[in-house]
Amino acid sequence: EAKGKRRNPLHDFKKTRELMLIKVNKTLEVKTKLLNTTEQCAKRCSRNKGLSFTCKAFAYDRVTKRCHWLSFNSLTNGVRKKQDHAFDLYEKKDYVRNCIIGKGADYKGTISVTKSGIQCQAWNSMIPHEH
């Protein structure tokens, strides 16, 4: 990155216009606050600043300028998608990406089978292969 230039925190998020996530599972957490820009929401979500959970997504209400940080995303069980013209949904790419970048050490996606359909070996298991 060039000296003096800041990286846009929104680059780590996948944006879906006019969509909000509704939690059906009551144990999932949400925190809201008035913030002027989606960049401010993204920065706070990426750093988990002031949140008691790992932020996986946020929804920005363009009308009220309110950020809703979410402990879940669209792939989480107990979550329903809702079309809403006031909101844009931003999901952390690490949690919705279905591919592995590099060695996969930071992979947080949901794929757990190989291309041929074989169940993946758990990281904490040495069976059937050693790491």
Automatic annotation (TrEMBL):
Task: Specify whether Disulfide bond is a keyword of the entry.
Answer: yes
Q: SMART domains attached here? A: PAN_AP (SM00473)
Entry-linked Pfam families: Kringle, PAN_1
Q: Which SUPFAM superfamilies match?
A: Hairpin loop containing domain-like, Kringle-like
Q: Give residue ranges for domain Kringle.
A: 98-131
Tell me the InterPro entries matching this sequence. Answer: Kringle, Kringle-like, Kringle_sf, Pan_app, Serine_protease_kringle
Q: Name one GO molecular function term.
A: endopeptidase activity
Which residue intervals define the domain Apple in the entry? 8-94
Instruction: List, alphabetically, the GO terms of the cellular component aspect.
Output: extracellular space
Would you tell me the protein name for this molecule?
HGF factor
Question: Gene name on record?
Answer: Hgf
